[in-house]
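[Q] Does anyone have a clean structure-token version of this?
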Amino acid sequence: MEKKSVESFKLLKKHFDEIIALTEEEFEYAASYFRPKKLKKHQFLVQEGQQSVTEHFVASGLVKAYYTTVEGKEHILQFAMENWWVTDYHAFYHKAIASTNIDCIEDCELLYISQEDKDHICHEIHKLEYFFRVKSNNGYVALQRRILSLLNQDAKGRYEEFIKLYPKLVQRIPKTILASYLGVSRETLSRLGR
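[A] Here you go.
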């Protein structure tokens, strides 16, 4: 196994350890179902129309998940940086065709797993089922917070909340992409950042 892949698996183990305690044997068993992937900036993890979708653990790098309208307008759904999970969840859990795109904002090192393999390791190691439930619940909370922010806050409020929640992320995201995520123009974002 490549050195970088070994580091990715070490990060996955540390990530699991934040919520559950796996024995070395349990982790080795679970890790055997994950595959490493390296992608360069602008490469896709998932593309709209893709038939088979996997879930990705971001070991290093930064990605964005987005939906593109028929008119070509891009709506950013989420970002995922180190220790975050990302996929087109509808396609992943329902074996549906992907309706979103996920591509790399930076070069990335990822570990990915199929839905069948994830179900299998959760069935075999119930602590992992708990781990993924906690991560899923945290994702729902973040999504609800984002929707409420879009409904209830003006551009300045959304920008300030994003900075407060994700201070390390702000510096890594190009301003045009951040503006799209916040639902404002690049010019408005420049004014907010002063």
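[Q] Thanks! Anything notable?
[A] The mean pLDDT is 93.
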